[in-house]
Design goal:
The chain is of the alpha/beta class. The strands form 6 sheets. A 9-stranded mixed beta sheet has the order 2-1-11-10-12-13-14-15-16, with helices on both faces. Strands 4-3-5-6-7 form a 5-stranded parallel beta sheet, sandwiched between helices. Strands 17, 18, 20, 21 and 22 form a 5-stranded antiparallel beta sheet that branches. Strand 12 (299-302), helix 12 and strand 13 form a beta-alpha-beta unit. The protein is globular and about 70 Å long. The structure holds 5'-O-[(S)-butoxy(hydroxy)phosphoryl]adenosine (WT7). 5'-O-[(S)-butoxy(hydroxy)phosphoryl]adenosine binds at residues 214, 259-260, 332-335, 354-359, 379, 438-440, 452, 455, 461, 466.
Length: 572
Amino acid sequence: MVLKTIPALQSDYQMQDYDKLAATFDWKEAEKAFSWYETGKVNIAHEAVDRHADSFRKNKVALYYKDGSRNETYTFGDLKKKSNKAANVLKNYSTLEKGDRIFVFMPRSPELYFALLGALKIGAIVGPLFEAFMEGAVYDRLDDSDAKAIVTTPELLDRIPVDRLPNLETVFVVGDEVSEEGKVISFSKHFEKASNDFEVEWLERESPTLLHYTSGSTGKPKGVLHVQEAMVQQLQTAKWVLDLREEDVFWCTADPGWVTGTAYGIFGPLLAGTTNLIVGGRFSTDSWYGAIEEFGVSVWYSAPTAFRMLMGAGSAAMEGHDLSSLRHILSVGEPLNPEVVRWGMETFNMRIHDTWWMTETGAQMICNFGSLPLKPGSMGKPVPGIEAAIVDDQGNVLPPNRMGNLALKKGWPAMMRAIWNNPEKYDSYFLNGEWYVSGDSAYMDEDGYFFFQGRVDDVIMTSGERVGPFEIESKLIEHPAIVEAGVIGKPDPVRGEIIKAFIALHDGYEPTDELKEEIRQFVKKELAGHAAPREIEFKDKLPKTRSGKIMRRVLKAWELDLPTGDLSTMED
Ligand code: WT7
């Protein structure tokens, strides 16, 4: 389906002239928005919360929170006090110091925000962990980063293998009736009594803030390290791309366990002094449309997979909901199908703006701005201040309409600064020390719009979540029945891709449906629900290179009935 270009928005006021900005903008201009520009004292939690709490926004709502029976409102003034309390608890009941790693492993809730912001106030490095992670996944991340503390809930406590993590000193548990034994400290009990005041730890612009673990096609998940400086780009994109205004109510549907949920579920909007909505619980059409109506959401940031589910539910699901508060809709995580853009136009009479970026980029990079005509199927143009190009494997820039590696000129403010404990891996992202190579393939048209084509590597994007095949394969072969396993992403109309596993069994095991279910449960219990293969196919043998590497591209070709390509490296 081809959709015509949809004209620029008349009302967009944050960015009037893309071409002029793209030609002249310097990130130095954006720095003037921060108090450290004059004081030299840097802390992102201060800029996101305290600065507003100490201004005319003191009584402005910073957070609305809705989950089941909880329905709460916190002003910027409240958020300052609560994050100060959290900082005091973390400081007083652990040995955490500047630069130490603390994980936040809990469902989306105000307490998560207090703990995360409090940890940043004491200068710690925060590792957000998605609540669906199981023991194996939690262990890998805490072990790799030598975590000293974790904040969690009673329900998730069992998944933290405290005995196998000798350097993990303190486990803070949010909940009233926690017995303080061993490493366990009740966060809530001490939070009640903690002081509202806290002297923020002042840091450098290059001081680390967040450690987001993400998947690649090889090896265990890697820790992507971000720094304070990221705030410059997070705020600027909140203005230009999210188009946030003083009176907006902003809803980012992503969980803070993923980078979208921190960069734009916390920092971008709070840095801009915007009212945020947090909705707990699982996706349902009714609760989502209900939330937009109840809180008067005006700017909505979600993912194609969610839009496709809403689209599938049809207009009946919208009946009885007044969605007239909506003004601006954005998408991230996977290709935004023209089909969904058309649905957005028909349903909301509004454009859905695509945004392309990655955990490693730390903030939005290539986007459809309100002030640009929108070409359905394209993710838009680079954010002013960002240089993007399509390069070949040697780093030569290719002309328009040629497919190649989507690359970014090194040095933007929110760029990751390290892969934890793995400088070789970090270096491997860069070509000629100049281009960051994203792992996506794309092309750029003659008007400078970028079009996503696919991943260059085997990374799987399922329902907007990034999953590394290697992590699942490694887990699968821990199962006693499995000799070897190959995992691929299989295209799916709703989820983008689903996870499919090809499995060879040990002698004596029968390839039954019960065994498939057992294997699925095994991955679910050990890694995470979203990592469990939806489809499993048993094979006598898997295609491998002579050096023993599973050839996923051959599995994929079999699955999709495509030519298998060069098989010269395949063993007999
Ligand atoms: C990968 C990064 C931070 C964004 C959430 C995912 C894919 C991301 C788009 C888009 C097509 C997209 C890419 C990228 N991706 N946005 N607008 N169109 N693909 O972050 O988990 O680090 O995954 O997500 O393949 O490399 P992530």
